[in-house]
Amino acid sequence: MGVVVDTSALIALKRAGVRIEERLLEHGDEPAVIPAIVYAELQVGARLAEDAERATLRRARIEALVERVPIVEFDRAIADRWADLFADLTLAGTMIPANDLQVAATGLHLDFAVLLGPMGEAHYAKVPGLKLVRLTV
C-alpha cells in the first residue's frame, strides 16, 4: 500500500534533520505521493520565509522532493471524492480543514494511507475508511 504524504510528516522529518525524499523512498515498492495541496502548502512556506536565503533553501528542498516523489493533481475524480467527504462530514458535524480534506480524498481515491507526522492531525480519524500511518523519527 502506498502513502499520501501530509505536510505534518514533511515538517517532522525536516525538524528531525532527516532527508525527506530519502526517508519517503525507504518503503521500497510502496509508492509515496504528494497531493497538490501539500505542494501548495510547502510553496507558501517558501514564500513566507523570514529572508531570501531561507526562501531559496526551502525552494531547493521542495524541488529535490518533487523530483523523487510525484505530485498527484487535484483532478475531477479526487474532486468528486472531496465533495462526497465534505457533504458526509458536514452532515455528521465532524468537518475537518479543507486542505486536509483534499489530502484525505487523495488517499481514499488512490487507496493509499495518509502518512502523518508523530503529532499529526487527529481530525483525520474522522474520515471513514481512511488509513493512517504515523511517522516515527
Quick tags:
about 140 residues, alpha/beta, Rossmann fold, 5-stranded parallel beta sheet, globular
Write the layout of secondary structure elements.
Elements: E1 3-5, H1 7-15, H2 20-24, E2 32-35, H3 36-47, H4 52-68, E3 71-72, H5 76-92, H6 98-110, E4 113-116, E5 132-134
Summarize the model shown.
This protein is α/β, with parallel strands linked by helices. The chain contains six helices and five strands, in the order βααβααβααββ. The mean pLDDT is 92.
Shape: globular
CATH-level-2 architecture: 3-Layer(aba) Sandwich
Binned strand content: 5-15%
CATH domain fold name: Rossmann fold
| Domain unit count | 1
Contiguous low-pLDDT stretches (5 residues minimum) are none
Mean pLDDT: 92
By CATH's scheme, which homologous superfamily applies? 5'-nuclease
Question: How large, in whole angstroms, is the Cα Rg?
Answer: 15 Å
Structural class: alpha/beta
The largest sheet, given as strand count, sense and whether it forms a barrel, is:
5 strands, parallel
Strand order of the largest sheet: 3-2-1-4-5
User: What is the number of helical segments per DSSP (H or I, 4+ residues)?
Assistant: 6
What is the CATH top level name? Answer: Alpha Beta
Instruction: Please give the share of residues in helix.
Output: 40-55%
Order of helices and strands: EHHEHHEHHEE
Distance between the termini: 20 Å
**DSSP E strands, number:** 5
Q: How would you sum up this structure, described in words?
A:
Helix 3 runs antiparallel to helix 4 and helix 5 packs across helix 6 (98-110). The model has no long low-confidence stretch (mean pLDDT 92). The chain is 53% helix and 12% strand. It is globular and about 45 Å long. The longest helix is centred in the middle third of the chain and has 17 residues, at 52-68. The chain has a 5-stranded parallel sheet. The protein has a single domain (3-134), classed as 3-Layer(aba) Sandwich (Rossmann fold). By secondary structure, the chain is of the alpha/beta class. The protein contains 6 helices and 5 strands.
